[in-house]
Amino acid sequence: AIAVLGSTNMDLVAYVPTAPRLGETVTGSAFRTIPGGKGANQAVAAARAGGAVSMIGAVGADDFGTQLRTALADAHVDTGGLRTVGGASGIAHIVVDDDGGNSIIVVPGANGTVGGLADGDDARIAAAGALLLQLEIPLSGVLAGARAARAHGVRVVLTPAPAQPLPGELLANTDLLVPNEHEAAALTGTSDPYKAAAELLATVPEVVVTLGAEGSLYAARGAEPVLVPAPRVQAEDTTAAGDTFVGALAVASGEGRPMPEALAWASAAAALSVQRAGASASMPYRHEIDAFTG
Length: 294
Ligand code: ADP
Prior knowledge:
The chain has 294 residues and is an alpha/beta fold. Helix content is 34%, strand content 24%. It has helices at 38-48, 63-74, 121-126, 139-151, 168-172, 181-188, 193-200, 241-254, 259-274, 286-293, and strands spanning 2-5, 9-16, 30-36, 53-60, 78-85, 90-97, 102-107, 130-133, 155-158, 176-177, 206-210, 216-220, 226-228. The longest helix is centred in the last third of the chain and has 16 residues, at 259-274. Catalyzes the phosphorylation of ribose at O-5 in a reaction requiring ATP and magnesium. The resulting D-ribose-5-phosphate can then be used either for sythesis of nucleotides, histidine, and tryptophan, or as a component of the pentose phosphate pathway.
């Protein structure tokens, strides 16, 4: 089983020919509300990939909160650890222009209340084979989750996004770190992913740097790094590619598959997702991933 401790956001997406500048009003072509948040996205990705997933976090006491909870339940994610707290749910206000470029404002709302573990969370984490963490809840919450997982011998998989400096204790309690190339550069100050991965191995035993269409780089202590190429596909929408990748990777490695094989399977899942629009809507099901990998 897989536990996810992290964010749920309603993505409020406006599509415009050209994004407005400060003080300007423009007419958009479409608007959509799409359940998202890195935590929830990883949970849905893992569930669709065939994992038994439980989500720990918080939604607000508003309509978005109800919708976010329902979206997770519809994906067969256990929401017993998803609290409803007073106030607003987390939202991401996203403007997408005709070139596919975007600008995003995240208002954490209920996610900001997940500063530690609540009743039952320790047991949920202990019951899992892996705990997936990201950085869209307070660092104190992320750290509490990592500590609990380590205490129970549960594998800690950290996606260090959005990029920010990480406390040493968090890295010390992390088994697998999965930055994209920008996050790897932000953490190390080097834009060469091989060098960044080597540097990160000083603090964590295993690193996967995702490289977009170039694939992913796997590095473990005492072994040569392995570059796993991404399948060549026509990318339509790369939103949440990284979250899809991590969710599928957790499922495959949780089944005992060796890392290079698990990475190839996760790459297939992410490649399928980028060919379709919508973050969580684009995430593939297990049979689709199996069919794609042959
Ligand atoms: P993030 O979405 O976090 O920015 P990346 O852009 O590195 O992360 O993408 C994560 C993974 O998704 C990549 O390692 C790759 O497997 C897959 N992926 C992303 N973009 C593409 C693409 N254009 N074609 C094929 N696979 C892709």
